[in-house]
Design goal:
It holds the Pfam family DUF3417. It catalyses: [(1->4)-alpha-D-glucosyl](n) + phosphate = [(1->4)-alpha-D-glucosyl](n-1) + alpha-D-glucose 1-phosphate. This is glycogen phosphorylase. One of its GO terms (biological process) is carbohydrate metabolic process. The structure is a single chain. The strands form six sheets. Strands 1, 2, 5, 6, 7, 8, 9, 10, 13 and 14 form a ten-stranded mixed sheet that branches. A six-stranded parallel sheet has the order 17-16-15-18-19-20, sandwiched between helices. It is globular, with a radius of gyration of 30 Å. It is built from 28 helices and 28 strands. The termini are far apart. By secondary structure, the chain is α/β, with parallel strands linked by helices. Helix 11 (about 300-305) packs antiparallel against helix 28 (about 695-740) and helix 19 (about 450-480) crosses helix 23 (about 575-585). The longest helix is centred in the last third of the chain and has 45 residues, at about 695-740. It folds into four domains: about 25-100, no CATH class; about 115-165 and about 170-405, Glycogen Phosphorylase B (Rossmann fold); about 450-695, Rossmann fold (3-Layer(aba) Sandwich); about 740-850, Immunoglobulin-like (Sandwich). The structure holds pyridoxal-5'-phosphate (PLP). The site of pyridoxal-5'-phosphate has 13 residues, from helix 7, helix 23 and helix 24.
Length: about 850
């Protein structure tokens, strides 16, 4: 139905009527404006208790709740002694948290991300990347760490998912009301709203800066959707991951360049810039520009930027690495070449593999690697995969030598733990144990918890989940227009005695959401066993442009309506953080079936693990580190087939077998008290042995130890004495690079390996004389490398041994080696010279090699 005004246009103006909260309840208002409320259980329970139904309807948003409560209800609460008592106690916990001081003498970190998953009521996230960033900021607050976030404030964010009767994904974009978010304008000293301007194709776009309180720290968000801007620029902060490639480019310019400008305006002076994914890569361009404007040369500026930047790469899937064609780069960023005092091709080369390949797109990952001293992947395995993926940027080195490290992702315990589980843990683990949450010894006390108590607590969580499923299906199916009979049929089959398995995540095709359906006959048999009911719950959104992912959703929705699968295979629409909590807390088994090795980490399984939901997953990403045979089930890491179809078939058959032969029988093997002791063993082991490692505190500690502290040190070093060392280092790099092509081998007296087989135990010897020309021999290292050939393309480095420099006279240096390689068999070897300098954090910091 549409309403048309037949006479004149309606003439309306906007007014914001601020709700009047009684004085007694002022603390509610205050607490609702710091997202901390969401992870202090006492506070979130207090909000929910005011009106559980309204709270749920309002997306668990306490600001909206207070705005929507009738004045009579507010007054009633203001006179409710019991409520006021609970309020005072919650406020005390809240204030005690905020009163704690930040840690001193640690580097200050600026964390940039395109998305943040903080809470369902803040539409700033799409999936795992965002949830990780949100969890990380919460932990920074919990750990009193001096870190702040930078991102975009989206009007519509990522879409809400609907489904048609047919299973087609529908995309809804309800607008966020900023007055109902815990955000506040950042103001200049003169009281005016802080705005930063960013040039977008000749127009100056004004971005308002908002701040969002996350416990003790802040997230700063840029917003272009206001009257100062032209309509197309206002749209810049409308959607997350919406629009075309050009739109993405503009958003990334806004995030990176606008973000750095906002930081400067606020005078925040971070020591380290952490790029959460390549989306943020342009921040380094703006920083370079500022250094050049302050009088540094481009190479000097680059040293300053590199020495204070960490880039975290999040996926081996190529589509996850943004790249832009040259003409777009020219349209939007041409001025940067001028500002950086470099030629345009040199500018483009920052984002290219081959500087001379003028057809190559500008790639954000390559840019980020070139302008960050440190790089990491997000699990041990993903670290390796990333080394391989980016080896081509470092010719002369094999993958295992590439300086890319890793920090395995994790999850924020207070956000993801069920309250009832937390209470059960806390009575056994002791007071304040959460501060030491990555300590396994504490978690091992779970074995002291009575099996029945743990089983019952988990059962209540399962019942809560299934009630939610029933309610949700009732509403969603009616809206879709399903017949009441189909709905009734499905609802009536949902059985609380069932073994419940969950699979929920983005429906990217590599995650193989439909693997389970590979063999319908076998699946039908599996879910229709007498006395052993099984339910599979599915949820997840596919990107609006990902038609492959949407196909998978359609398939599952259609299967879920077939009589033999009704009530046993269920698809829940609109996956979000609240649903993720219910699912990971309530299911018995959390499933994940990615195509190896494409799951960089995955985090939902960790949420499940800490709640005692046992994982069954491909040994990829985090599970390759977390899996133990007594704490879950796994599909093997190695691929058997190159053909993905055959591999899918094998994986599906393996999955059915493990379910049929191990998981289902164990779950239903009940003793006289009605529980399965064997099952509880798995539950306890995944809590005791797996969960502690995947807590955010461990991840934060790892980032400090592996990256922030060393970077903080190098950032300090390059700043000292007016950037003296940065300048010297840049000059040395320039000179070394210029002289590198002059290196020449004058003599090479190596053991004759063509005619002589070296017996085991005997030394391999070589003496080499190099014309070093202008390069100081103290800055040269010569190494012998022994490789093993795996196949035509791959060699593995087995041993590295440095030569000793035995003489250097005007312009030549003599190197000698005599070493027992401690190897047997056929190897390939080479002598590789590389530059060294005490400012060098790793060999690839100056990317030059010379083969003798
Ligand atoms: C945790 C979470 C994810 C990430 O799940 P993966 O296992 O990493 O794929 C995605 N979406 C939501 C809503 C989440 O809560």
């Amino acid at each position: 139905m549409t309403i048309t005004t037949t006479q004149s246009e309606m003439k309306l103006k906007r007014i914001f009527i601020q709700p009047q909260i009684p004085q007694e309840l002022a603390a509610l208002n205050r607490m609702s404006h710091n997202i901390l409320w969401s992870w202090i259980a006492q506070v979130s329970e207090l909000f929910s208790s005011i009106d559980p139904q309204l709270f749920t309807e309002l997306n668990y948003n306490p600001v909206a709740l207070l705005e929507n409560l009738p004045p009579a209800r507010l007054n009633e609460l203001a006179g409710d002694k019991d409520f006021l008592k609970r309020l005072a106690s919650a406020e005390e916990a809240f204030d005690a948290y905020l009163a704690e001081p930040m840690k001193k003498d640690l580097p200050r970190i600026a964390y940039f991300s395109m998305e943040y998953g903080l809470h369902i009521s803040l539409k700033l996230y799409s999936g795992g990347l965002g949830v990780l960033a949100g969890d990380y900021l919460k932990e920074a607050s919990d750990s009193n760490v001096d870190l702040f976030g930078v991102g975009l404030l989206y009007r519509y964010g990522y879409f809400n998912q609907g489904l048609s009767m047919n299973g087609d994904q529908l995309h809804h974009y309800p607008a966020q009301k900023f007055t109902q978010l815990p955000v506040e304008p950042v103001r200049r000293d003169d009281g005016n709203w802080l705005k930063v301007s960013v040039g977008i194709k000749g127009r100056m776009v004004q971005a308002k800066v908002w701040s969002l309180a996350i416990g003790r720290i802040k997230l700063y968000l840029l917003d272009t959707d206001h009257e100062d801007n032209a309509p197309e620029d206002r749209a810049l902060t409308h959607q997350l991951y919406g629009g075309d490639n050009e739109h993405r480019l503009k958003q990334e310019i806004l995030l990176g360049i606008g973000g750095v400008r906002a930081i400067e305006e606020m005078g925040l002076n971070p020591d380290i810039y952490h790029l959460n994914e390549g989306h943020a890569g342009f921040l380094s361009l703006e920083r370079l520009k500022n250094y050049v404007a302050a009088g540094l040369s481009f190479p000097e500026a680059r040293e300053m930027v590199r020495a204070s930047s960490l880039y975290t790469t999040h996926t081996p899937v190529p589509a996850g690495h943004d790249h832009f064609p040259e003409h777009l780069m020219r349209d939007y960023l041409y001025n940067y070449a001028t500002d950086l005092a470099i030629e345009w091709p040199e500018f483009m080369a920052l984002g290219r593999l081959d500087p001379d390949d003028h057809g190559e797109d500008f790639n954000m990952s390559k840019l980020s690697i070139r302008l960050s001293q440190r790089v990491n992947g997000v699990s041990k395995l993903h670290g390796k995969v990333s080394q391989e993926m980016f080896t081509e940027l470092f010719p002369g080195y094999t993958a295992e030598e590439v300086h890319i490290g890793y920090v395995t992702n994790s999850v924020h315990y207070p956000t993801w733990i069920a309250n009832s589980m937390h209470e059960l843990f806390s009575t056994t683990f002791g007071k304040d144990w959460v501060r030491d949450q990555s300590n396994k010894d504490i978690w091992r006390k779970v074995h002291k918890i009575d099996d029945k108590a743990l089983f019952d607590t988990r059962h209540v969580l399962k019942v809560r989940l299934l009630n939610y499923v029933r309610e949700k299906l009732k509403v969603d199916m009616r809206r879709r227009g399903e017949s009441p009979r189909t709905t009734f049929d499905i609802l009536s089959k949902i059985n609380e005695k069932a073994l419940v398995l969950g699979f929920a995540r983005r429906f990217a095709t590599y995650k193989r959401a439909t693997l389970l359906f590979n063999n319908r006959d076998r699946l039908r048999e599996l879910v229709n066993r007498k006395d052993q009911p099984v339910i599979f719950l599915f949820a997840g959104k596919a990107h609006p442009a990902d038609h492959g992912g949407q196909d998978l959703i359609r398939q599952i929705v259609q299967i879920s309506k077939e009589p033999e699968f009704a009530g046993k295979i269920i698809f829940l629409e609109d996956y979000n953080m609240e649903m993720a909590k219910l699912l990971t807390q309530g299911v018995d088994i959390w499933l994940n079936t990615p195509t190896r090795p494409l799951e960089a980490s995955g985090t939902s399984g960790m949420k499940a693990a800490m709640n005692g939901s046992v994982n069954f997953s491909v040994l990829d990403g985090w599970w390759a580190e977390g899996y133990r045979p007594d704490a879950g089930w796994a599909l093997p890491l190695e691929r058997t087939y190159d053909d993905q179809h055959l591999q899918n078939e094998l994986d599906a058959e393996t999955m059915y077998s493990i379910l049929e032969e191990e998981i289902i029988p164990l779950y239903f093997d009940r003793d006289e008290s009605g529980i399965s002791k064997g099952w509880m063993g798995y539950v306890k082991q995944i809590i005791a042995e797996v969960a502690p490692y995947f807590t955010m505190k461990r991840m934060m500690d790892d980032y400090f130890e592996r990256f922030y502290l060393p970077l903080g040190q190098s950032a300090r070093t390059v700043r000292q004495d007016n950037q003296k060392k940065a300048k010297a280092y840049a000059a040395w790099k320039e000179a070394t690079a210029a002289g590198w092509s002059e290196l020449e081998t004058i003599e090479n007296n190596t053991l004759d390996t063509v005619n002589y087989a070296l017996p085991v135990g005997e030394n391999f010897s070589a003496e080499v004389v190099i014309a070093t020309n202008g390069i100081d021999p103290d800055h040269l290292v010569l190494e012998a490398l022994f490789y093993q050939r795996m196949d035509e393309e791959t060699i593995k480095l087995r041993r590295t041994q440095a030569f000793e420099r035995v003489a250097s006279t005007n312009g030549t240096a003599t190197f000698r080696l005599s070493v027992d390689p401690h190897l047997a068999g056929v190897y390939e070897y080479g002598f590789r010279m590389r530059p060294v300098h005490d400012m060098m954090p790793h060999p690839q910091d100056l990317n030059l090699v010379y083969w003798v």
